[in-house]
């Protein structure tokens, strides 16, 4: 038996949004695990279910219209669906925090940044206001902002600095799990690199486990230990960074890599994945990638593929591989 400990374990999670236009099947049996102290990259296109996964871990899927229809989520071994809302409030910010893409939506424009960090500390820790402000200044220093700037307001900071403040708030109570939803997408490329570098250092310092939600495989290569590729609300390929980058199995993962610029051959054209994500109110019956897949076979149209393991960690859900992980299909062109 494995003695690995997991910061989060999601099994067979299904989430729907019941709207006037139909039932949006956002997550369809999603499995995901993050070992303590490790970073998992959850990669996929917009609309694949990445943010819903992050919100589900915090039990913040907006309801209505969102409904958890099945599955389980354990945080540090504890089932979050059996907790009361009051218990969840105590966990948010303390056991698990989330950083969103746009720092402005996370910061209060009429509060100084140190007050905003102190607010979280006071909520979860046994300190008075003065002690919380002192710790807030320390947190600012830790993310590379002079403590004395704590008395300033968000509009007095640049985009990169604001995201650093958001990270300081998220880490203020040393959560065991940090969910980062495209944390650097809204930033300039050079600032992105600085913020990522800082997150890497802080993660090591605090031994924080991290779920890095991104569409950017460059960020995954930079910061992640394991990778889950999500499509149509399911993880279609999962493995270590080396497994997924150097032994790519799923045609969708292959497509994500093909659509990246090749720095060794800059004249080579990018090859975007043809077609669009499936309509989540009307998902294909078999493999959800079937309409876009160059390797699709007859079976893919009607039968959902099951997990096939290449090693203890690396699996793929694709009919191209039989239960012994032998490739049984090939490029047939559709
Ligand atoms: Fe393509 Fe079939 Fe594999 Fe789906 S199951 S990714 S359609 S080969």
Walk me through the structure.
It is built from eleven helices and twelve strands. By secondary structure, it is of the alpha/beta class. Strand 9 and strand 10 form a beta hairpin. Helix 4 (113-124) crosses helix 5 and helix 6 (159-171) packs parallel to helix 7. The relative contact order is 0.13. The mean pLDDT is 91.
Cα shape = globular
* DSSP helix fraction: 25-40%
**Rg over C-alpha atoms, rounded to the nearest angstrom:** 21 Å
Strand order of the largest sheet: 6-7-8-3-9-10-12-11
Mean pLDDT: 91
Cα distance spanning the termini: 44 Å
- Detail the poorly predicted runs: none
Number of helices: 11
Q: Sketch the topology as an H/E string, one letter per element.
A: EEEHEEHEHHHHEHEHEEHHHEE
**Got a strand count?**
12
Tell me the β content: 15-25%
Molecules bound to protein = iron/sulfur cluster
By secondary-structure content and strand pairing, the structural class works out as alpha/beta
Largest sheet: 8 strands, mixed
What tags apply to this protein structure?
334 residues, alpha/beta, eight-stranded mixed sheet, four-stranded antiparallel sheet, 11 helices, binds iron/sulfur cluster
Summarize the structure.
This protein is α/β, with parallel strands linked by helices and 334 residues long.
């Amino acid at each position: 038996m494995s003695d690995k400990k997991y910061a989060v374990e999601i099994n067979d999670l299904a989430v729907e949004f019941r709207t006037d236009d139909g039932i949006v099947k956002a997550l369809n049996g999603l499995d995901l695990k993050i070992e303590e102290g490790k970073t998992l990259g959850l990669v996929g296109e917009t609309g694949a279910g990445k943010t819903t996964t992050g919100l589900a871990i915090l039990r913040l899927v907006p309801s209505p219209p969102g409904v958890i229809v099945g599955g389980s989520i354990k945080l540090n071994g504890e089932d979050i669906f059996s907790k009361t809302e009051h218990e969840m409030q105590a966990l948010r910010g303390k056991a698990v925090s989330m950083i969103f893409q746009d720092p402005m939506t996370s910061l209060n424009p009429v509060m100084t940044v140190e007050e905003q960090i102190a607010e979280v500390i006071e909520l979860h820790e046994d300190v008075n206001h003065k002690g919380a402000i002192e710790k807030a200044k320390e947190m600012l220093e830790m993310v590379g902002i002079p403590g004395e700037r704590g008395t300033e307001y968000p509009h007095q900071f640049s985009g990169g600095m604001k995201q650093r403040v958001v990270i300081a708030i998220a880490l203020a109570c040393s959560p065991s799990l940090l969910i980062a939803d495209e944390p650097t997408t809204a930033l300039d490329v050079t600032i992105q690199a600085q913020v990522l570098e800082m997150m890497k250092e802080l993660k090591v310092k605090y031994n924080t486990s991290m779920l890095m939600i991104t569409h950017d495989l460059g960020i995954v290569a930079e910061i992640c230990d394991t990778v889950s590729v999500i499509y149509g609300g399911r993880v279609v390929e999962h493995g270590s960074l080396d497994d997924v980058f150097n032994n790519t199995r799923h045609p969708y993962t292959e497509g994500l890599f093909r659509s990246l610029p090749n720095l060794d051959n800059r004249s080579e054209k990018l090859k975007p994945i043809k077609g669009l994500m499936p309509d989540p109110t009307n998902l294909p019956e078999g493999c959800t990638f079937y309409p876009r897949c160059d390797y699709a076979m007859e079976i893919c149209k009607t039968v959902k593929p099951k997990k096939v393991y290449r090693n203890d960690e690396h699996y793929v859900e694709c009919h191209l591989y039989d239960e012994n992980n032998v490739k049984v299909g090939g490029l047939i062109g559709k």
